[in-house]
Amino acid sequence: xxRRDFLKGLTAxxxxxAAHPLLTTVTLxxxxxxxxxxxxVVILRGGMDGLDVVQPLGDPDFAAxxxxxxxxxxxxxxxxxxxxxxxxxxxxxQAGQLGFVHATSTPYRDKRSxxxxxxxxxxxxxxxxAIGAQRDGxxxxxxxxxxxxxxxxxxxxxxxxxxxxxxxxxxRNWTPxxxxxxxxxxxxxxxxxxxxxxxxxxxxAEAMTLSAELSGREARKADARGAEKGPFGPGDxxxxxxxxxxxxxxxxxxxxxxxxxxxxxxxxxxxRGQNNAIGRPLSRLxxxxxxxxxxxxxxVWGRTxxxxxxxxxxxxxxxxxxxxDHGTGGLMVMAGGALRGGHVFGPWPGLSEAALYDRxxxxxxxxxxxxxxxxxxxxxxxxxxxxxxxVFPGLEMGPNPGLIL
Amino acid sequence: xxxxxxxxxxxxxxxxxxxxxxxxxxxxxALAGPDEMAARHPTFxxxxxxxxxxxxxxxxxxxxxxxxxxxxxxxAVRAAxxxxxxxxxxxxxxxxxxxxxxxxxxxxxxxxxxTTKARNAPERPLPGTLVHDAVRPHLTGRFEDMLIAATLHxxxxxxxxxxxxxGPGSPFGQRRNRGLNxxxxxxxxxxxxxxxxxxxxxxxxxxxxxxxxxxxxTAREGFLxxxxxAEPGAExxxxxxxxxxxxxxxxxxxxxxxxxxxxxxxxxxxLATHFVADSPDPALVAAMTAAYxxxxxxxxxxxxxxxxxxxxxxxxxxxxxxxxxxxLAALRALGMTGDEMRKMARGPFLRMLLRPMALMGQDWxxxxxPDGWPESQEAxxxxxxxxxxxxxxxxxxxxxxxxMPDPPGFVQxxxxxxxxxxxxxxxxxxxxxxxxxxxxLASPAFNRR
Lengths: 405, 449
Prior knowledge:
Chain A is of the alpha/beta class and about 400 residues long. Chain A is about 35% helix and about 15% strand. Chain A has one domain (about 5-180, about 215-390): Alkaline Phosphatase, subunit A, CATH 3.40.720.
């Protein structure tokens, strides 16, 4: 097949993935009201195939659904095995610092649009609210519920806005690559011309404050750390500046007064040749987790929980091109020293034709928001009423799964 | 108070410098006239790119057979990059030289509507070829023609995985046990025509995917229809049945999608959101939707409905310029010509334009997904995005032009009657010419439209 040569180059990623999957944003918040525990939220854009990441090899129907699938040799618990792309995390699993929730999803159903799915995931609302009508994100509403946070002690890093942390609660955005050096006079004159335009006044003030706070010394320090060889996991022997710079930056903040960080990682839209295509985003996710652990140090890692969630899972069956199409039930990945890991949480619905959602997708058996809510309750002691009323309006959290030690 | 000609240049072009846009009638007449910029600064179509793409595909194959010899592959990748970069420069050059820049802004809008992305270095020229082949020729024609040209374009067939989709009941599918890939079918309906809010379901997506089977493209032959991969039998999309062989039923469904009332509303809203306001006046959208429906999707008529509606001329700038438009407007204000853009050395082009653009949030031809770039001002005027604009405005113009313009005069050149009192006051008080020019380019007035 001559045309395969042309196609090979076009196979790697599907419709929502970046050409080089980007770690788009780090969002950070800090403040005394949150105590000592750290929460890191990673939004996995594109729809991660949970059935390939935590493989239900012991389920009698799995093999028939995925004839081209290469089964992993890394057993977890029960019917599940871990994709070798996360093989470097086995130590964390054995230490109880890695866990998963299978067959979980947001309340989003049926249209299977990346963009609506991600909007819902970040706004944290149910299908009773029009998609896009909720302007703030659930992590921001959590910050609004915690007293004692100050605007100048919370911020975010990255090239792209992250709706997850957008809203009136105190948080900030920055990317370590923008180096803004202004004379005092230019600073004053910019303040003057931005005075009457709210959007420019707020963004400009934040840009100028942050670039002053973070200038020079800090940026060089981050570069120096990035050049070191870290514990990257099997096969990851080269520096990945885009991942490392942002992880190191976030870790530096989290070691200090910051308590909450959020990233997004794309590249999960594996419509074609999934056996190859999913390797790259998985190794990035593994790198994020291992490097974060290393850069935080044992004490801070021991107080950290990382939650990685996606807008939807993918079809239970492989499609006609060795990939999977947009589905429903998905997987949440959890890591950290504060986590009660070593478990695959969530009721397993099975994969028989009748057990599938719409006869095609993994049936969701839990609401991904409930797990996030219990994690926040465990980490920060937020009231159930606050979580069900303000952070995730209309959510029923159900019984406590005991995610946090 | 902003006068109408200045407003036209800012909202529908790249700002007042060297603009001759006049009012709606002049803009529509210019659109109806010859495409002078395409002749002056030519770009490439898929056919032009075929030799480079084929060479890159060969080199890739050789690299797999002999991984130690990277030279041929690297040379092919460099050729592909050079071709893609020259198309980008030509697009930028048109924006710098066009007196009626509305055509260039429309090209940007539709290129984004039909977003494609190269997935690796050898295929870098592909997205530009779709703009050349499918967008520019149909800019003022009927939407259905653009939709058909874009959907059948090799860049789209590759990017949204249609080349990997096979009818499960087709001879090839049966023999090789291959089947569907839903990606293109879903996005054609969700993003390119009806819009996600419209009344369609998973069954329509599935039927559309079956209907699209047979479409293919390769680096040697370009577009192909392969009957042995097409699902046999008829498909039903949105209640209508499509039967027959070859590309015709596919063109028929695309035509019907283009003529669907939901598509009229989706396209009208998207245009109004891009050009006029993040939350456009419903009356404006309604007028454009009606124009689309009544004309059968004649885009020049839809543009006319927008330009002739009072809501399009509210003299308040509600939107933020996207980074690419910010940079082009700045270069125009600084006096750079299209020929200078095309002659710029590669290092400075990347260092002073494309990399800063990425820091502003817009990595050229690499949006996150097939939905393209965001529209809302909040997505662009973030602390890091605005910080990158300020940094560029303060540092780069002085390295691009000598002598630098005098700041008080530059306010007038760049903004005309859109300059506000605070900016005029501040530009005269900067400590240096460099900083004065930077203030003007970093100002809200210059970053809005």
